[in-house]
Amino acid sequence: MADLLVAALFLERSEAIVAHGLLESEGVYAVMPDFNVMSVEPGFAFTQGGFRLLVRADEVDRARAILRDAQVASAEAGNVAE
User: Fold this and answer.
1) pTM of the model
2) Where does residue 43 fall: left (phi above 0), alpha (psi -120 to 50 degrees), or beta otherwise?
3) How far is the C-alpha of 16 from the C-alpha of 52, rounded, in Å?
4) b/e map of 36-51 (b: 16 or more CB within 10 Å)?
5) For a designed S-S bond to 75, which of 38, 46, 48, 80 qualifies (C-beta 3.0 to 4.6 A apart)?
6) What are the tens digits of pLDDT across the range 44-82?
7) Per-residue CA distances from 13 to 18, 29, 47, 61 (Å)
8) Which residues contact 51 (CB under 8 A, 6 or more apart)?
9) Whole-number pLDDT of residue 45
10) What is the C-alpha to C-alpha distance for residues 44 and 24, in angstroms, rounded to an integer?
11) pLDDT in tens, 26-38
12) Contact 19/69 with Cβ under 8 angstroms?
């Protein structure tokens, strides 16, 4: 199996779920290996550095670009507080 790298970290469970779904919808293989453990206890994600969203090493740049573009598009639509 290809090496996996961290594409993004999320402190909020809901943001991690949306980002994972976005990458999968774009054809990027993505996993969150700590998701179930981190979801059990509120605040645990913060102490562990966040939910890790991992992708294949050869797709990490594309994944980060997809996530960055989605964040910019959301901000431009007025959906993100500045």
Assistant:
1) 0.79
2) left
3) 8
4) eebeeeeeebeeeebb
5) 80
6) 666 667 889 999 999 999 999 999 999 878 777 776 554
7) 9, 19, 14, 23
8) 9, 10, 11, 13, 16, 32, 34, 35, 38, 45
9) 62
10) 25
11) 999 999 987 767 6
12) no
User: Residue 66: which of 6, 7, 2 has the closest Cα?
Assistant: 7
Task: Please name the amino acid found at residue 55.
Answer: V
- Residue 5: Cβ-neighbour burial (10 angstroms; 0-12, 13-18, 19+): middle
pLDDT of residue 2: 66
| Matching residue, tokens 């562990």 | 48
Query: What distance in Å separates the CA atoms of residue 20 and residue 79, rounded to the nearest whole number?
Result: 19
Bridge partners of 9? 52
Residue at token pair 């059990």? 40
E strand or H helix at 7, and its extent? strand 4-10
